[in-house]
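Figure 6 in text form: structure in, sequence out.
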C-alpha cells in the first residue's frame, strides 16, 4: 500500500514536471566550470536508459545489480550508470568520485564527508553555514547553480531526510526568468526519465558536486576531508598533535581551535566557523611560504 501511495504521488509530480520540461521556452545556461570527460560519458549512459521501466513487483536491473531486485531504485540507477562508465572507460569513479549506496541519507552524507556538498539553503544541519572557498560572504539560499554531473538530493516532507536523488543534465532560464534544473532520474514513478525543478524548489536539500567548491562550519561530531584539512593546518601551526589528526572533530581538535581563536583575539568557542577558518587559512599560507623546508631542492 505504501508503495502504491508513493507511486500515485510521484505520478502526479511526473505529469507536472514533464509538461513544464516539454513546453517552457528556455535558454540553456553554460556550465560555470569545465565538464569532465567522465561526466559527459556518465550523462550519455544515463540518457540511453531513458524510458526503461520497472517490471513486475518493482523489479529493475539496477536493483538487481545492487543486490535487491525490488529496491526503490533512484540511487541504484545512478550508481549503476557510474559503474557502466568504469567498465567501459576504465575509470574508477564509483566510491571515489561518486558513492555506491542504497540507504536513506547515505549518499548525501558521503558527499559531505568528501567535501563536495552544497545545501540549497547554504546551511547544513548538524554542521553549519557554508561559503565558497576563500570567500568572505556566506552562500545565499537558492543561489548555487548546479553543474552537469552533480547529484541532487530531495526530501518530500519536513523530516529533512533524503527521499530521492537525481543527476543534473543542465540548467536553463525559463520564460519567467527562473532557473530550472534539468535532471535525469530513475524511479519516477516507475521509469527512467527527464524532469526539471526550479532552483529554489523547497524539496531540494542540496547537491553532491563534481568539484570541491564550498567550505562549511566544522564542530564536534563532524567527520571527513574538511575536518582532516583543518587538523593538518592546526598541526602545521603547532596547535594540534599529529596523533589527533584523524578526520574526526573530537575534544582535542576543539581545544586546538580554541587555542588558535584565543591567539587571534577571537572568542574561543572551539567551533571552526567561517572567520576562524579564513584566519587559519591565511596564517597557514603565510607560514608555509616562509618555511624554507618546503622549497628545498633535491640534489638527486
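Output sequence:
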Amino acid at each position: 500500500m505504501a508503495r502504491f501511495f508513493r507511486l500515485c504521488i510521484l505520478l502526479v509530480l511526473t505529469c507536472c514536471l514533464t509538461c513544464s520540461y516539454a513546453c517552457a521556452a528556455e535558454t540553456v545556461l553554460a556550465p560555470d566550470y569545465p565538464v569532465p570527460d567522465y561526466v559527459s560519458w556518465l550523462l550519455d549512459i544515463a540518457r540511453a536508459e531513458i524510458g526503461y521501466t520497472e517490471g513486475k513487483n518493482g523489479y529493475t536491473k539496477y536493483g538487481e545489480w545492487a543486490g535487491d531486485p525490488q529496491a526503490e531504485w533512484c540511487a541504484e540507477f545512478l550508481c549503476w550508470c557510474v559503474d557502466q562508465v568504469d567498465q567501459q572507460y576504465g575509470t574508477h569513479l564509483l566510491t571515489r568520485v561518486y558513492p555506491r549506496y542504497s540507504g536513506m541519507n547515505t549518499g548525501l552524507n558521503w558527499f559531505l564527508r568528501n567535501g563536495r556538498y552544497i545545501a540549497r539553503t547554504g546551511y547544513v544541519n548538524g554542521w553549519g553555514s557554508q561559503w565558497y572557498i576563500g570567500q568572505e560572504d556566506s552562500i545565499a539560499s537558492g543561489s548555487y547553480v548546479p553543474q552537469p554531473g552533480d547529484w541532487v538530493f530531495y526530501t518530500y516532507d519536513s523530516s529533512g531526510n533524503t527521499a530521492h536523488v537525481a543527476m543534473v543534465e543542465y540548467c536553463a532560464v525559463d520564460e519567467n526568468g527562473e532557473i530550472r534544473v534539468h535532471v535525469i532520474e530513475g524511479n519516477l514513478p516507475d521509469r527512467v526519465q527527464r524532469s526539471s525543478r526550479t532552483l529554489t524548489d523547497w524539496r531540494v536539500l542540496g547537491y553532491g558536486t563534481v568539484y570541491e567548491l564550498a567550505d562549511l562550519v566544522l564542530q564536534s561530531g563532524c567527520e571527513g576531508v574538511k575536518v582532516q584539512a583543518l587538523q593538518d593546518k592546526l598541526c602545521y601551526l603547532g596547535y594540534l598533535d599529529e596523533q589527533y589528526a584523524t578526520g574526526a572533530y573530537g575534544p582535542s581538535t576543539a581545544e586546538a581551535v580554541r587555542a588558535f581563536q584565543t591567539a587571534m583575539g577571537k572568542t574561543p568557542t572551539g567551533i571552526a566557523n567561517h572567520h576562524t577558518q579564513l584566519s587559519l587559512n591565511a596564517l597557514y599560507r603565510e607560514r608555509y611560504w616562509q618555511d624554507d623546508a618546503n622549497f628545498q631542492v633535491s640534489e638527486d
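Caption detail: Residues 1-23 have pLDDT under 50 and may be disordered.
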